[in-house]
């Protein structure tokens, strides 16, 4: 009876050690439990092992007393069940078992002797059983032989149950912690995991850089092939990143199609460029098609001015935005000048919507002139923003931000409506007015399902003839999605609206686009017109564009004419219409009305 009470006390002591442990304190608690068991049962060693079912192996978790001069590798650290006769017997063990020194267990005896120095051992093993399945073992070993009573084995079964419960709780806690620190789709660290890693690393060293990688144009894969395909592509990118940087480098999914890689600062630009090359070759195959994408990478490095993880990530984010503004597929290092530009960008993005609604946007107009007759043939509507603190902002300051922040459609709708309204006011003031109102259209508007219907509704609202409206699209807008663009342009042509390709010659379009797209005019980019009178290479390019326009039966307009010499060259090449500072800068609507009343601009 006395021994039974002592065993109860041992079990109670184990329960007390394990009562409130978590993943950070469980190792110490295991050592206390094994120490008490060694002392009570007078054995040479006590050990706790967990089963790795995926590898069919037994893994050492704790032992007492700690061994000195442990071999490397430790023969008892990880033991594969198929390589040891005794361990093989306990893989699926669900009841206690005692193993005594026998010739058949020579491999086990040799393993223990190599790891502990014991020449011969008697072992008792009590399995940890969860839902009828062995998940580990509590074991004892002693030189020579040792008898175990039923009451002792029963007490050990109770202790094994306590250890099983602790293991299950720790596994659950580790699972929750893993889920809290990792992205579900890719298995990479998530933002929280990245923050913890970077916080620790920045506390240790100032030789830290982060690469902020943003996949270019993933949306088109999602839109065309569905989000499951987009997710598959992101997992492919994640696998590529892990393979390239190795298992010891932190790679995190920041969110969406964005990833962050933490590297040492030395040679970071070259590593980023190499990584970019690898990412651009990553692909998935869908319905016989190979899909791949480029990426943009921004680099930021810890410097004396960076105090927090947020600062470092923010700088890398600004750098990747600069890379995307270059057209993507680029690597850009953070520059402190980005900060002031970013402040302007944030200011514009925050206040642009209210500007659209409260009347602080204005339209200016630039005339287009027939070079033979000097007659005004068209007017281009150009938006301006009378910013309350920054003054008059040109479209180059805020239109790109509108396009990047999903405000382009609202802005374009405002411009179209006010341009048509202004045209009708001019028509009343100038009887017989018959010119074209040119309005720029963003890629976001072109890709909207109902854009043609929206244009028709605006024309109807203001009573304007479609014959007097020309919508200008850039070559870059054309290549966003050629099929959707062509469909929209056909619908616009059915309304009677003309279409012009703006900034033609900048390298995005091809002859195939001119064959597919229903367009009426080409506007030669100002870069080829500015020095047309003196630069033979510009004349060669404009000659080619003029020949294309003639071959396809398209009107041709030159932009950016500033010098009289250019007009003679344009006339010689067959381009008879132009706009630019030589004729007039963009002017407010009332000044444009005065010019329309005259009807011509003589140079």
From TrEMBL:
Q: Which chain positions lie within coiled-coil regions? A: none
Q: Which InterPro entries match?
A: Biofilm_reg_signaling, EAL_dom, EAL_sf, GAF, GAF-like_dom_sf, GGDEF_dom, Nucleotide_cyclase, Rev_trsase/Diguanyl_cyclase
Q: Where is the EAL domain?
A: 345-600
Q: Give the signal peptide range.
A: none
Gene3D superfamilies assigned: 3.30.450.40, 3.30.70.270, EAL domain
Q: Which residues form the GGDEF domain?
A: 206-336
The name this protein carries in UniProt is Uncharacterized protein
What superkingdom does the record give? Answer: Bacteria
């Amino acid at each position: 009876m006395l021994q039974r009470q002592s065993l109860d006390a041992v079990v109670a002591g184990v329960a007390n050690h394990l009562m409130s442990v978590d993943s950070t304190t469980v190792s110490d608690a295991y050592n206390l439990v094994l120490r008490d068991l060694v002392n009570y049962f007078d054995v040479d060693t006590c050990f706790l092992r967990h089963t790795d079912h995926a590898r069919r192996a037994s893994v050492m978790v704790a032992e007492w007393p700690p061994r000195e001069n442990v071999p490397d590798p430790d023969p008892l650290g990880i033991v594969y069940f198929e390589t040891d006769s005794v361990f093989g017997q306990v893989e699926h063990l669900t009841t206690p078992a005692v193993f005594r020194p026998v010739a058949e267990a020579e491999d086990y005896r040799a393993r223990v002797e190599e790891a502990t120095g014991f020449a011969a051992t008697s072992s008792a093993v009590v399995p940890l059983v969860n839902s009828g399945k062995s998940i580990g073992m509590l074991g004892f070993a002693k030189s020579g032989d040792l008898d175990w009573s039923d009451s002792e084995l029963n007490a050990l079964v109770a202790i094994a149950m306590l250890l099983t419960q602790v293991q299950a709780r720790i596994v659950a806690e580790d699972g929750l912690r893993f889920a809290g620190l990792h992205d579900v789709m890719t298995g990479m660290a998530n933002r929280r995991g990245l923050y913890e890693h970077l916080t620790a690393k920045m506390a240790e060293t100032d030789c830290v850089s982060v690469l902020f990688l943003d996949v270019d144009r993933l949306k088109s894969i999602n839109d065309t092939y569905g989000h499951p395909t987009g997710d598959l592509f992101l997992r492919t990118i994640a696998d590529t990143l892990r393979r390239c940087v190795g298992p010891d480098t932190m790679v995190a999914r920041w969110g969406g199609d964005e990833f962050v890689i933490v590297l040492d600062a030395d040679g970071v630009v070259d590593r980023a460029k190499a990584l970019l090359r690898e990412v651009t070759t990553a692909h998935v195959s869908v319905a016989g098609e190979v899909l791949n994408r480029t990426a943009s990478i921004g680099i930021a490095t810890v410097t004396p001015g960076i105090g927090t993880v947020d600062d470092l990530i923010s700088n890398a984010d600004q750098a990747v935005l600069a890379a995307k503004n270059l057209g993507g597929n680029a690597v850009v290092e953070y520059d402190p000048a980005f900060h002031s530009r970013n402040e302007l960008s944030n200011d514009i993005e925050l206040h642009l919507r209210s500007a659209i609604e409260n009347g602080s946007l204005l339209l200016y107009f630039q005339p287009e002139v027939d070079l033979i007759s000097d007659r005004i043939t068209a007017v281009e509507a150009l938006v301006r923003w009378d910013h309350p603190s920054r003054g008059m902002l040109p479209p180059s300051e805020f239109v790109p931000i509108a396009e990047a922040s999903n405000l382009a459609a609202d802005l374009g709708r405002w411009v179209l409506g006010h341009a048509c309204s202004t045209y009708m006011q001019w028509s009343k003031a100038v009887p017989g007015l018959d010119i074209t109102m040119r309005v720029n259209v963003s890629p976001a508007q072109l890709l909207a399902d109902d854009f043609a219907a929206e244009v028709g509704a605006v024309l109807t609202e203001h009573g304007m003839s479609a014959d007097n409206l020309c919508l200008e699209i850039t070559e870059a807008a054309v290549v966003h999605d050629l099929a959707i663009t062509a469909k929209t342009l056909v619908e616009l042509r059915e309304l009677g609206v003309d279409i012009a390709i703006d900034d033609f010659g900048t390298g995005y379009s091809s002859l195939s686009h001119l064959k597919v797209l229903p367009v009426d005019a080409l506007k030669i980019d100002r870069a080829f017109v500015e020095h047309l009178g003196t630069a033979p290479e510009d004349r060669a390019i404009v000659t080619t564009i003029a020949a294309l326009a003639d071959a396809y039966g398209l009107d041709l307009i030159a932009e950016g004419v500033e010098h009289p010499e250019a007009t003679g060259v344009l006339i010689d090449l067959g381009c008879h219409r132009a706009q630019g500072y030589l004729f007039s800068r963009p002017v407010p609507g009332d000044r444009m009305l005065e010019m329309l009343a005259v009807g011509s601009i003589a140079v």
